[in-house]
UniProtKB/TrEMBL annotation:
Its main location: endoplasmic reticulum. InterPro entries: Reticulon (IPR003388), Reticulon-like (IPR045064). The lineage of its organism: Eukaryota, Viridiplantae, Streptophyta, Embryophyta, Tracheophyta. This is Reticulon-like protein. The keyword Transport does not apply.
Length: 187
């Protein structure tokens, strides 16, 4: 019985020593020398042992470091809370209220246009300068190139649909039929 007590005391002391080493090792604010040691050194092997799940890098480095990792790990609490709040508001808006993205974009643009209209008309009453809204011109050449490529793609699709309807391409006809059958069965 006395032997068991004597064996447990050194184990507890060595455990306490390990804990104090770990605490004092992390308390140092200067750069750690273990970061610059070779991976074969005993302290590097010891550091690997204490990492959860046997990771070689800290979680902050795995997430890419910087602001995104700070947000994910809640190191910047205000920004993380803001991201969580915006994500929750978007979820509530689209899932629970069943609001649509197109409706949201239209309402935002109407509010922005109304605000600019009021600002430009009320500038004389509040002695402010009117907003400087730049003129936007779409170049004709770029628009014609996009329209021409879209026209070519549509004509190509109509040629394919015509060949399927006339029965000239049996493989594509069967693919289209199987697609529509699968679509009707899933609904």
């Amino acid at each position: 019985m006395a032997e068991e007590i004597e064996k447990s005391v050194p184990t507890e002391e060595s455990l306490m020593e390990k804990i104090s080493e770990k605490i004092h090792h992390h308390d140092s604010s200067s750069s750690s020398e273990s970061e610059y040691e070779k991976p074969d050194s005993p302290s590097a092997v010891k550091a690997k042992i204490y990492r959860m799940f046997g990771r070689e890098k800290p979680v902050h480095k795995v997430l890419g470091g910087g602001k995104p990792a700070d947000v994910f790990l809640w190191r910047d609490k205000k920004l993380s809370g803001a991201v969580l709040g915006v994500a929750t508001a978007i979820w509530v808006l689209f899932e629970l209220v069943e609001y649509h993205l197109l409706s949201l974009l239209c309402h935002i643009s109407i509010l922005a246009l109304g605000g600019l209209f009021l600002w430009s008309n009320a500038h004389t009453l509040i002695n402010k300068t009117s907003p400087q809204i730049p003129e936007i011109h779409v170049p004709e050449e770029a628009f014609l190139v996009v329209a021409s490529s879209l026209r070519n793609e549509l004509n190509q699709a109509f040629v394919i649909l015509r060949s399927i309807a006339l029965g000239r391409d049996l493989k594509k006809f069967l693919m289209v039929c199987s697609f529509f059958v699968a679509d009707v069965c899933c609904v």
